Amino acid sequence: MKEKVPLMKSRLGSKHHYPFNMIKRNDKAKYLYIYRHPEDTFVSFYHFLQSIREEKFDFDQMFEEFVSNDIEYGRYFEHVLSFATHKNDDNLLLISYEQLFNNRKEGYLRIAKFLGEDYYQSLVNDEALLNRVLENTSFDYMKKNLQFVHPNPKEPSKDTVKTVNFFRKGGVGDGKNKLSPDQIKRIRELANEIMKGTEVLKQWYGE
User: Fold this and answer.
1) 191/67 Cα distance (integer angstroms)
2) In the predicted model, what is the mean pLDDT of residues 131-138?
3) pLDDT score for 6
4) How far apart are CA 138 and CA 77, in angstroms?
5) What are the tens digits of pLDDT across the range 59-93?
6) Has residue 1 got a pLDDT over 50?
7) Rounded to whole angstroms, how far apart are CA atoms 121 and 126?
8) Number of helices (H), then strands (E), in the chain
9) Residues linked to residue 92 through DSSP beta bridges, in sequence order
10) 152: buried, middle or exposed (CB in 10 Å: 19+, 13-18, 0-12)?
11) Triad 137, 141, 145: Cα angle to 5°
């Protein structure tokens, strides 16, 4: 892999789940951070783990882990806050899943503008290209064509993988249907405690 890196083109992209303080910053790079309402985030995360793990998780037990501060990549609220604190950085764009869900065209043009004027102008001046981007990033298209390859937990020592459908519902508001009133209350209280005064909190709860 190392010997191939110098041969790659200069414009590269990578995806990760690290909080802001764990990434090696580069002023020449651009960072796109997409966040989601915590209620929906938890429900989506629960179903995702159910699909890739052989052992089944208890919904309520996993909720306790989600709201605790002892979880991989750190608790969700602090994770979002770590990027929201840097919202004015020139090379960082924060955009919510809900914004993209409600108006993908507007969201993609905003992302293109952030990545570079050439990207933006390409989409603005070529309606066919923009429509192709919208089509190839639609939920139905991605659910059909994109799959997640994960090591097979039944045979971890072998070179076998388990193919998982990365996409489930692709909606907004599922958390309210799955979480108990007490769980919803606890998530809101944590969000208010940790993210008080942020624009993200206002988007989530109008506060």
Assistant:
1) 10
2) 93
3) 55
4) 28
5) 999 999 999 987 778 899 999 999 999 999 999 99
6) no
7) 8
8) 11, 4
9) 31
10) middle
11) 110
* Whether the predicted model's global pTM rises above the 0.85 cut: no
What's the mean per-residue pLDDT of the chain? 86
- Residue 59, burial from CB neighbour count under 10 angstroms (0-12, 13-18, 19+): middle
Pick the more confident residue, 147 or 143: 143
**Which amino acid is residue 138, in one-letter code?**
S
Q: Which amino acid is at 73?
A: Y
DSSP 8-state code for residue 85? T
Quickly tell me which residue has 């508001």 as its tokens.
173
The rounded distance, in Å, linking the Cα atoms of 184 and 177 is: 10
Roughly what angle, to the nearest 10 degrees, separates helices 181-194 and 59-67?
10
